[in-house]
């Protein structure tokens, strides 16, 4: 099942590269036709999309490599590095857009061929929106940080593109030329926010943040229900690494229980947890009843 997920993630990552290149071509064409600095900002963000999609593809392929002697826990965290890189690229693009907008404020100009340019930009944005929906849905299902990060960036691009299209239309309709660089600056601000949020989430994954509270509660409930014969479970710890969830805890059993009996309980717990979290990697440390802490997860 895991191998199938990795294959799907790789296919989606390749699709992202293809979509990003096509959208970049369309948006670059819209900017070339109009000369609008706001459409330049939109096209520059698509350059970042191509780089980010390529990085996501490399990360997904690297994360699919099996564990080895130097990486006994696998390579799943490679996807977080891709997401960090994407966040950094977004911030760089935003700064470049701000620089261009500042220069355009001094000498604003009327966009050329605005109708055709805006139509091409709208077509590119529609393609981005459709792919972002696919990528977000499948990325969450596959638990791929790189794909989810790419989808969020695309959604941010769609929102800013819509604002740019409306704004450039207003420039043409009203003749207020400074609206064009102002829209570019606002686009840069939105991109900066997206980049910082993406960096925050990616760094959290690299820092081994625990699973969300609702997921942890489900884990505790499963352990309590499936540990019949044991006394308690304590010191439950969790962390995410890409699509994998690592769980470990101590299971206290009666001192007279045989190794085979305690192992049977562990097998039962692991089977139930993997039915709930099929990419879970579980480590259970069995202890005698003298090690009970009378806290943690009581056995139902």
Automatic annotation (TrEMBL):
The chain crosses the membrane at residues 12-33, 39-60, 80-102, 114-134, 154-176. Its main location: membrane. It is a multi-pass membrane protein. Residues 16-207 form the Cation efflux protein transmembrane domain. It is found in: Membrane. Keywords: Membrane, Transmembrane, Transmembrane helix, Transport. The keyword Transmembrane applies. The keyword RNA-binding does not apply. Residues 213-289 form the Cation efflux protein cytoplasmic domain. It comes from the Bacteria. SUPFAM superfamilies: Cation efflux protein cytoplasmic domain-like, Cation efflux protein transmembrane domain-like. It holds the Pfam family Cation_efflux. InterPro entries: Cation_efflux, Cation_efflux_CTD, Cation_efflux_CTD_sf, Cation_efflux_TM, Cation_efflux_TMD_sf, CDF_Transporter. Belongs to the cation diffusion facilitator (CDF) transporter (TC 2.A.4) family. PANTHER family: MITOCHONDRIAL METAL TRANSPORTER 1-RELATED. This is Cadmium transporter. The lineage of its organism: Bacteria, Pseudomonadati, Pseudomonadota, Alphaproteobacteria, Acetobacterales.
């Amino acid at each position: 099942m895991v191998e199938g997920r990795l294959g799907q993630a790789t296919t989606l990552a390749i699709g992202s590269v293809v979509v990003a290149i096509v959208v970049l071509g369309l948006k670059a064409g819209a900017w070339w036709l109009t000369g609008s600095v706001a459409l330049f900002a939109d096209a520059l963000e698509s350059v970042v999309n191509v780089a980010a999609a390529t990085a996501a593809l490399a990360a997904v392929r690297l994360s699919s490599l099996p564990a080895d002697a130097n990486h006994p826990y696998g390579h799943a965290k490679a996807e977080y590095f891709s997401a960090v890189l994407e966040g950094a690229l977004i911030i760089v693009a935003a700064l470049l857009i701000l620089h261009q907008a500042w220069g355009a404020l001094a000498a604003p100009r009327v966009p050329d061929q605005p109708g055709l340019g805006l139509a091409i930009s709208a077509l590119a944005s529609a393609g981005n929106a459709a792919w972002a929906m696919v990528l977000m849905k499948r990325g969450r299902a596959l638990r791929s940080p790189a794909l989810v990060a790419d989808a969020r960036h695309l959604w941010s691009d769609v929102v800013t593109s819509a604002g740019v299209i409306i704004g450039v239309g207003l420039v043409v309709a009203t003749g207020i030329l400074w609206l064009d660089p102002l829209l570019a600056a606002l686009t840069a601000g939105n991109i900066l926010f997206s980049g910082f949020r993406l960096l925050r989430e990616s760094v959290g994954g690299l820092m081994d943040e625990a699973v969300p509270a609702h997921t942890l509660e489900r884990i505790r409930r499963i352990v309590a229900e499936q540990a019949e014969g044991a006394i308690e479970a304590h010191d439950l710890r969790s962390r995410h690494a890409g699509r994998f969830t690592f769980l470990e805890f101590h299971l206290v059993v009666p001192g007279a229980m045989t190794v085979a009996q305690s192992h049977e309980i562990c097998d039962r717990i692991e089977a139930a947890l993997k039915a709930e979290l099929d990419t879970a990697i579980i480590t259970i440390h069995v202890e005698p009843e003298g090690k009970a802490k009378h806290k943690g997860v009581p056995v139902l």
